[in-house]
Amino acid sequence: MAGSSLTYFTCTLGQAAITENLASSNTKTINDFLESQAQLYPKFPAVGFPVPVPNEGEWRSEVFSFDDLYKGSITVAKELSPYFGHGNIGKPSCVALLCPSSIDLLFTWLALMRIGTAVLLIAPQCQPAAIASLCKSCDASILFHDTSHNDLASSAASLPNSNFTAQVLPWRTLEKDITGIICAINGSNSEFVALYKPSENDTAYIHHSSGTSTGIPKPIPQSHRAAFGVLPRLDGQTSATFTTTPLYHGGIADCFRAWTSNTLIWLFPGETLPITPKNIILSLSTASRAETEASTPPVKYFSSVPYVLQTLAEEPAGLSLLQNMELVGVGGAALSPNIGDHLVNQGVNLVSRFGSAECGFLLSSHRDYAVDTDWQFLRLPSECTSLCFEKIGEENGVLRELVVRKGWPHMAKTKRPDGSYATGDVFEPHPHIKNAWRYHNRSDSQITLLTGKKFDPAPFEDAICSSSNFIRDVVIFGNERQYPGALVFLCRSTGGNEEKEAWNVISRHNNEVEIQSKIDRNMVAWIIADELTPEKSSKGTILRGPTEEKFAAYIKELYEGTSGSPLASNVPDSKVHSLTASIVHEVMGFKIKDDEDFYQNGVDSTKATQIRSKLQTVVKPRSEIREMQDLVERYSHFDSPTAEKQNAVPKTSIAVLTGATGGLGANILDNLLDKSAFSPIICLVRAKDEHEANKKVSANLKARKLSVPALSRLKCVPVSLSRADLGLSPEILEFIRREATCFIHVST
């Protein structure tokens, strides 16, 4: 990282530990830290809020010093203390806080910690069931909330098995402004006595996951030490940060990163305004005026999540704003490569910051921005030995999983007996730069089709969205289905060609992905985004599970609509050939000659199922009952006597199986081997010789933890399924014709 200096904005916990100048050197808890800051740097600005002024033009600002934070937390703690009763002995139970990112949230959070309780910070995007689940998991006895969330809080508290009370913030019931309460500080603040004095390892506050897959978020506790004690003390007084990240998510971490280096952080006013390019620009204009009028440090660092950067990049004024920043940090989710590349090409010093609530700030792509444009590649300092990238299972590819070893400054939990934490985040190495890694996917985010094929939908979704102005969001689905589909959320246009334009984009990207990932046109649900939207977290990331549940009817119709369609008809025999060929062409993207082998041309089980489903939409199936009646009538009369009944039933039968090198075939083979009635079992395998055929089948059984049988019961024979004689010797072919009694064909 030659040419790049260490800053509080990009310093990871590993780098902080190496500096040996940590915030916990003198103080052990958040309460003590704020008191120390108030004593050492009382007038230093700590946090600023742009304040919109309706119908009055320029916004004003509220800037609080470290002294304000300390004394204000005590004043608000006095307002809240009556709700904890009198004469409490010991540590109070956890309390929850439901509030937009605002001055209310900031000081209520600080005050509750001052009282001595742990604070569960709940994102306002949570549904009542999610809020109730979080409160139950954390044993929260009270849910404090602002007046704008009365209904949400009441709904959560009234659910069955909810064991907490919803309490509106007391000054809100009196229509008082918390700023007025803070400013009414008097000399009695020092007389406040907390109900409990926490230690550095006690839980200070609790974040929660977004519940991306299940819709039910999980609590992630943060100790006092983890919150600020592992951060570095660097000189940041001349470089303020502006963050759009709400306090109830990464905004708190942004605050402590600035505060431990004695500098100011500006927070977006999330209580009254949506995060739009216009409002961000107005917020930064307000911060710029404060620099002139109140001598606050200039904003040099900008922190946000990907969707905010994307909206700014699309506006000339927004792009100019980013270009004027010393550093622009992105995290919380993956930024589209197209958007990131565009920003870097336009001169934006873009840095990717990667971390987790469990382990804090892990890696960044901080580098020499003048010569290094690889913003996606996170840099692992050679001196940092507490992080490593491990091989995934038995795979021989380049992908590796990030593992946090014992000794890392902060781990909220571990996953392994040796005290390490496997993050589940998968990376790929830079082809030339040592110790540079690009995020690939979550190891648990893949879609697994019914065929056993897997793929990560996120890169495909990102590529589609970033390639069209018509497409706002894409959600690919397909878990435990034969093939995938997509919910495509379209922006309205005056031309009315949204679907056609959007499909052209999807079709183009279909040619760039693996065959199991391809989306067929009849598996796309077109949805107008102005009317219906996918479920999202407060970070802007799509909640896959809840979205699939919300649009379950659409998904069901797509899958069921491809089987036995009412539009199907009786196709004349003369058109069956051309119709079948056109459907194969449509599914595969290229023509396959009549005498060419399907398998050799990439028609696997997924594509075969799609071809069959498409045929069913245009060819009306005959009634199975009618067909059986026809067969009965046709074969009810015999011109020759039937064969004599055998006197004895053979003790064993000979089974012939194809597809034993696949998932389904391996399990069928395992079942056949359990039955003594079948011996031998002949496996027809695509291989050059018998040795290779045996090796393929044995390896497949071992990989799936199935037993490998004795050679006396299993005979693996190399075949070529495209040949009329299967490529078998005349002797084996005749043996199968004469002796085999069970045929199972599951190969594609």
TrEMBL record:
Q: Where is the Thioester reductase (TE) domain?
A: 657-746
Which parts of the chain are coiled coil?
none
Q: Which residues form the AMP-dependent synthetase/ligase domain?
A: 35-366
Keywords in UniProt for this one? Phosphopantetheine, Phosphoprotein
Quick check: keyword Phosphoprotein in the entry?
Answer: yes
Do the record's keywords include Phosphoprotein? Answer: yes
**Which Pfam families does this one have?**
AMP-binding, AMP-binding_C_3, NAD_binding_4
InterPro entries, per this entry? AMP-dep_synth/lig_dom, ANL_N_sf, FAR_NAD-bd, NAD(P)-bd_dom_sf
Quote the protein name from its UniProt record. Answer: Adenylate-forming reductase Nps10
| Native source species | Lachnellula cervina
Gene that specifies this protein:
nps10_1
